[in-house]
Design goal:
- The complex is a heterodimer.
- Chain A has 15 helices and 16 strands.
- Chain A is of the alpha+beta class.
- Chain B has three domains: 6-101 and 148-184, Rossmann fold, CATH 3.40.50; 109-147, no CATH class; 204-319, no CATH class.
- Chain B contains twelve helices and ten strands.
- Chain B has helices at residues 17-23, 29-35, 49-54, 72-84, 93-97, 109-116, 170-184, 204-207, 253-256, 274-285, 291-298, 304-309, and strands spanning 6-11, 37-40, 60-66, 69-71, 85-91, 122-123, 133-136, 139-142, 146-151, 161-163.
- Chain B is globular, with a radius of gyration of 22 Å.
- The chains are: A alpha+beta, B alpha/beta.
């Protein structure tokens, strides 16, 4: 009897994700389908709009990481007008972006990824969430997390004009600067953020790395895939979130390609499947070989872990120390174990906080020249930033008035669609075998395959119970449900 | 044991920004927890469609519904939540007026898919497109159907209150939560059904600190093309600012940050059609009487449809009827 397991809905993908698992007659997993059931059509309806509106329109792709779209759109619009924003504007954009990263990464760790480790993968379902974490580690830590969110959003508002959907980036720079007083306030908050990031790493060190069971889980095979890794780097091959070149390393960690934004389409292509609204990006030079890993498959990953793998280090001192400890502990580069992404994310959190302070320390941050008026004829431009969940590419074509004639977007999480699908498949195959009694534990193990990637839109769960609600229904061959398993917060 | 009133929040075709705005009320979220039993909120807790279906009709006191109705799953959820909820609030711009994704109504909905699956980086020589129902070796799998136009919540079900904004400002959300808690404690009364809540009754201009001199303009100015005076009305400087037609409630955040209002709080009190009001506001500042000059000035607005209906297309008077390509010949 063929069995079908449906996981619907998974809610950390904008509430609209679905997994179908098919078992063969022996009871082993035959195949899995991870479906994205939504398409809103930004690439279509943005055509005809003035290009300067893109930092405002594309914010609305994702209200969880609008800062990423705002920045990618602003950079693409700069490129369309062939204008280089003044240094003050670049500092402020990256400063806003660094503060956003602190907020975003911190909340993922405490609300989404952390509970599996702080509480344990087998902890009672009712405790395996942010409330359980607060209960266990204390309200004092919870208030630190709230503080980190508040400070991050304050910086976004001071520079970007609003807490959600910032509005100040325009072609050539910004609509406003900041005062010297605001710069000092931002600097002070950044200094606190560094301490918070170090505290978070210590917590991870004590709770996770100090526990052999967790270390074995991280290093185990269930959550391991050997793929290519992507991340943006500066001229020293250090990670940069706001600007640089996109570097890809192969599964052995050797540089495979390094490209500037305008060349992206020579290196990345997107595969189409008829059973989902999302495409599967892959490396063009290697080719689409299906949902498989290894050097001969063009599947790549773009996450905190892949950014560390694709770089030669981090540009700030404390984060660099942590980077070195990361690879020394896990046996060298690259690290293929997806669960190590949680650690990598905290190292990036520290880098973002240090970068925040570095940028806010620059007196030019409060300088008077925050905009260069574009003078050249608008044509075509590509803008790339590292969104927390992957490399984000915006590509625009305009007419001579700067009105869009075509738009192409490759969004953060999209990069990881194939690897996430593979991780789900591997977790399912490893966990569901002939004769296996499907337990609640299975649900959390499937969940953990996802959670390492921090699927976008899911970071919306910034501060409440960090449970990926799952329901597994096992149907018989006639489609009648024979068993339903649920987990609750 | 007293049972707390039930609360739900759901997202249809949306970006998640409304949820972030709710979470940004910080410690106030504990008041929600103290006064309500949260029974359905996919972003924050376990949320099963069939759990919802099993609840008694009308058993949820308050549901905040954000997102537009883009596909048949959104529509199904709107109808289900309407049935289960005593008070259904259209929360945020998407649910109220379609928001940015509503601009898709300017096009054939099939174009959404065709465009996305034929971009420069898409490898699709054999023209594969997503299918509602698809046969895989072991069975059939499904994804929702995209509907011909994006609809607002009140075009699909009856709505009790409207809370505008993209997203609604967090202090406005906190204010509404306080009000509902007071109502529960018998200290306040609910506003009349159909009211706009969590927003002001005037326009963004009324909240804007910039000086207005009732001057007129000789041309429109793109925001990137000139330095603007931070103390003077943007529209008077030629920047197409949507403040005059847009409802107050945001403290004029964008104009305060040097950017034009783009209209995310929707039509101001008493405005029947957002775009029509904005057209008349812009017309009133254009300093010209001969058609040629007027045309030249209007050419400075490269995208009138987007300018006048950026957030409001799906909710505007233009929404009437089915899209042209779906209509039967007369």
């Amino acid at each position: 009897m063929t069995q079908r397991i449906t996981i619907d809905p998974i809610t950390r993908l904008e509430g609209h994700g679905k997994i179908e698992i098919f078992l063969d007659e022996a009871g082993d997993v035959a195949n899995t389908y991870f479906q994205i059931p939504e398409l809103r059509g930004f690439e279509s309806f943005c055509v005809g709009r003035p290009v300067e509106e893109m930092p405002l329109l594309t914010n609305r792709i994702c209200g969880v990481c609008p800062e990423a779209h705002h920045m990618a759109a602003a950079k693409a619009a700069d490129a369309v007008f062939h204008v280089d924003p003044p240094r003050t504007a670049k500092i402020l954009r990256e400063l806003l972006y660094s503060a956003f990263y602190v907020t975003d990464h911190a909340t993922h760790f405490y609300a989404l990824g952390g509970p599996d480790f702080v509480m344990g993968p087998d902890a009672p379902v009712a405790e395996r969430n942010i409330l359980g974490v607060i209960h266990k580690v204390g309200l004092e830590i919870a208030s630190k997390v709230i503080q980190a969110r508040k400070y991050g959003h304050t910086v976004v508002e001071v520079i970007g004009g609003r807490k959600v959907h910032p509005c100040t980036s325009i072609p050539g720079g910004l609509t406003k600067g900041i005062t010297e007083e605001q710069r000092r306030e931002i600097l002070e908050m950044g200094t606190w953020a560094i301490e918070f990031a170090q505290f978070s790493l210590k917590l991870f060190n004590d709770i996770v790395l100090g526990n052999k069971v967790y270390v074995d889980l991280i290093l185990g095979d269930i959550y391991t895939h050997r793929t290519y890794y992507m991340g943006m780097v500066d001229e020293h091959n250090h990670v940069n979130f706001y600007d640089g070149q996109v570097r890809v390393v192969d599964p052995e960690g050797r540089e495979f390609v390094k490209y500037a934004a305008p060349e992206y389409a020579s290196h990345i292509a997107e595969h189409v499947e008829p059973w989902t609204y999302l495409k599967f990006p892959y490396l063009k030079a290697v080719g689409w070989k299906g949902f498989v890993d290894g050097k001969d498959s063009g599947v790549y990953m773009a996450t905190p872990l892949s950014r560390l793998n694709a770089s030669d280090g981090l540009a700030t001192p404390h984060a660099q120390e942590e980077y070195e400890r990361f690879y020394a502990t896990l046996g060298g580069k690259p690290v293929h174990q997806r669960l190590a992404t949680h650690w990598a994310r905290l190292i990036e959190l520290l880098y973002a906080a240090e970068r925040w302070v570095e940028l806010a320390s620059d007196p030019e941050a409060s300088g008077p020249k925050f905009h260069t008026i574009p003078t050249e004829k608008p044509t075509e431009g590509v803008g790339i930033v590292e969104a927390p969940r992957g490399t984000l590419t915006h590509h625009y074509w305009t007419d001579e008035r700067g009105v869009l004639t075509s738009v192409n977007l490759i969004v953060g999480t999209t990069n990881n669609y194939a690897p996430i699908s593979m991780s789900i498949n591997k977790a399912a195959r490893s966990l569901i075998k002939k004769g296996t009694v499907v337990t609640e534990g299975l649900l959390n193990m499937v969940e953990m395959a996802f959670r390492a990637y921090d699927p976008c839109f899911g970071c919306a769960t910034h501060s409440l119970p960090g449970q990926m609600p799952l329901e597994v229904t096992i149907h018989d061959a006639q489609g009648n449900p024979v068993r339903v398993l649920r987990q609750y917060c | 044991m007293t049972t707390k009133p039930k609360f739900a929040m759901y997202w249809a075709a949306s970006c998640g920004g409304c949820e972030i705005a709710v979470l940004n009320i910080h410690e106030k979220i504990l008041d929600v927890d103290a006064n309500f039993e949260v029974v359905f909120w996919p972003v924050a807790m376990d949320a099963k469609y069939h759990d919802l279906e099993a609840m008694e009709d009308g058993s949820i006191l308050l549901t905040l519904f954000n997102g537009g109705i883009r596909n048949d799953e959104n529509e199904r959820m709107a109808k289900l939540l309407r049935r289960k909820s005593k008070i259904l609030v259209a929360f945020g711009s998407c649910a109220n007026e379609g928001c940015i994704p509503g601009l898709a109504n300017l096009r054939d909905s099939r174009d959404i898919v065709r465009t996305a699956f034929n971009t420069v980086s898409t490898d699709n020589v054999s023209h594969v497109y997503p299918m509602h129902s698809y046969d895989v070796p072991a069975g059939e799998i499904h994804i929702p159907k995209i509907l011909p136009i994006l609809q607002t919540l009140d075009q699909v079900v009856e709505v009790d209150y409207h809370m505008p904004g993209c997203p609604p400002e967090s202090d406005q959300i906190a204010g509404v939560i306080d009000l509902v808690i007071q109502v529960l404690q018998g200290k306040a009364e609910l506003p009349p059904k159909g009211a706009v809540i969590g927003a002001g009754n005037s326009t963004v201009c009324d909240e804007c600190a910039r000086t207005r001199n009732v001057k007129s303009i000789e041309s429109f100015t793109r925001i990137w093309s000139a330095a603007t005076d931070p103390a003077l009305c943007l529209l008077e400087q030629g920047v197409p600012c949507n403040g005059p037609a847009t409802r107050s409630g945001c403290k004029a955040r964008c104009p305060s940050a040097g950017a034009q209002c783009i209209g995310c709080y929707g039509p101001a009190e008493g405005v029947l059609d957002y775009g029509a009001r904005l057209v008349s506001s812009f017309a009133s500042v254009i300093n010209a009487s001969d058609p040629e000059t007027i045309d030249r000035i209007l050419d400075g607005l490269p995208d009138p449809a987007g300018q006048f209906y950026r957030f409001n297309l799906a909710g505007s008077l233009l929404r009437a009827g089915r899209p042209a390509w779906e209509r039967e010949p007369a």
